[in-house]
Specification:
Chain lengths: 410, 107
Amino acid sequence: MNKIVIVGGGHAAAQLCGALAEAGLGPRVHLVCAEAFLPYQRPPLSKAFLKSPTEALQLQRAESWYAQAGITVHLADPVLAIDRAARRLRLQSGQLLDYEQLVLATGARARRLVQLPATLANVAVLRGAADAAALRDQLGQVQSLVVLGAGFIGLEVAATARALGLAVRVIESAPRLLARSVSAELAEHIEATHRAAGIAFSFGAKVGEAEHDGKILQSLQVDGQRLPVELLLLGIGAEPETALAETAGLALDQGIVIDAAMRSSDPAILAVGDVARFPIAEAWAPPGTRLRLESVQNANDQARTAAATLQGLPASYAALPWFWSEQASMRLQMAGLMPDPSLPGVTRHRRPGANAASFSVLHYVDQRLVCVESVNAPMDHMMSRKLLEAGRHPAPESACDPAVALKSLL
Amino acid sequence: MPDISLIEANGTVHGFEAPDGVSVMQAATGYGVPGILGECGGSAICATCHVIVDDAWIDRLPAPLANELELLECTASERLPGSRLSCQIQLNPALQGLVLRLPERQV
């Protein structure tokens, strides 16, 4: 039987299993996970899961579902090598697995800091369930947390730790939080909300030497000052997990290079999710833009495209990028890709929400609406997605008039 | 461990025993009921776990909060009187026999 082998255990892998099972292809599918768990929901790992010691992992699908779908699952068995000529994988267990078509959904791993060896017990990262379980234990044993990096993971964990009563300081080298991800206006609101909750920030920070004995980190030099550390979370981004693809000789460019049908430079191998660098549809970015997105939306929608390609159907990934983050009382939602504010013709406009803690920022390039960021405005976010998907470009005057429902502009 | 029934838009009935303490969305996606997505993992963000609660059960469930009500305005299929986001319905023994219908589309 022609095997489809999926390598990875994240949202993309789970969604692909679902889509292939729905197409009746389950019995051809092997899912190979490096982790010891069936695919689970990752967004709660920085929030509900950290908050409560009794919160369990939420499996995306129960074990019995895989059996019923006829999918063979290999857990805790990382792939060591791909033999492209023989179309064969070698797993850590020693098992050899032939494939007709292979999908790499290997995700991304947390970036580390050179001066902090991986052996330091009180330096944490957060990508998977094992990281989250370790971090949860550690948060229960300390009074303070230092977060390096004011990105989404860092800020979500900072908010959770603060809600647990810890003293929290966030250290960021950029001049503001989420510098690459959200507008300055939204960042200012997020920072003010976190500061009001008691989180301390150091921006434009220079991180120097680390004081440690190889087992425990005692302190970090930040802006020339010694900052004592009980527990440090590294939230300085992620790198695509490309080691396997690199050894196999696939085309790479800070990620596995794929086309709009999710095919890599080897047509028998597809890649999806955080690991893949793809051509984004011209509706959402300037022509020729290739990027890598780390989001649940991108993982799910690319998996759907891959499922079509694997069935021999024409498929071209064109989904609108959208994203969310939950931090303390803030639900942040983004639709579309934020344009570079320094480019000519780029403007942004604020649409008020129901109260001071609720608003949206609409980004335009000339007269075209391209991106909407919302905080505590779920309906405006959903309607923004519909406007963008429908290619509607309402004038900022009407789109930012709180008396006008975005729905009415569709 | 209530027994619940989810009825697909095409009439296919999925009846199963669901664990207490999880949401209807978690139970249904775990079981693999087609036509229910729950892409955000139960954060009431994505409105892709839309269900329509059987008339007899509408008033027996805790009322939706403001956030859920906003999202119910944005579901892919039309909102009906019994419409809920199933990630916001927590299962408990009192829901023995709960009947829910699925809409035509979630996205």
